[in-house]
Amino acid sequence: MIGSDNNASVGTLETLTTTLIDSVNGYRDAAQNAEGSKFQEIFRRNADERSRVAEELRSEISRLGGNAPDDGSFLGSTHQRFLDLKAAVTGRDDKAIINEVERGEDYLKEKFEAALGADIAPETRTVIERAYQSVRAGHDQMSALKHGMEA
After folding, report:
1. What per-residue string of b and e applies to 40-67 under the rule 16 or more CB within 10 Å gives b?
2. Residue 90: what pLDDT?
3. Whole-prediction pTM
4. How far apart are CA 5 and CA 3, in angstroms?
5. Which CATH number fits domain 4-150: 1.20.120.450, 1.10.10.10, 1.20.1260.10, 1.10.3720.10?
6. What would the pLDDT profile of 8-30 be if each residue is shown by its tens digit?
7. Burial (0-12, 13-18, 19+ Cβ within 10 Å), 132
8. Does the pLDDT at position 120 exceed 70?
9. Where is the DUF2383 domain (predicted)?
10. pLDDT confidence of 112, banded at 50, 70, 90?
């Protein structure tokens, strides 16, 4: 049973975990659809990193007495299908894929920033801050790739 003090922390962690799982799925899909092997490798590495971070959040959920999610959100599934469709229609254009991935990164970063602004237990905040460092690095990497392609 989750204590009332942990409810907010568990809810926040569940949302972040689900969003990270969506990110893992998005990166795997991007790796499958990218033309350039350089991009495929970046996307695979980022998917692996996000899986690791999601696992850390799952551990914290369990520590707090919650049940950690192991699949993404409905919106994530919808976004995934859109990415699939877009890749098929655009002929797997790397620039279009990177634009979509970067858009997902913006969303994920916002989720983490909102969580860090919430009233949560200090131990949970530490776990989220550690995860956020990884999220921010991935966001910045995709942003740099996107802007590099626009130059």
Report:
1. bebbbebbebbeebbebbbebbeebebe
2. 60
3. 0.85
4. 5
5. 1.20.1260.10
6. 889 999 999 999 998 998 899 88
7. buried
8. yes
9. 12-116
10. very high
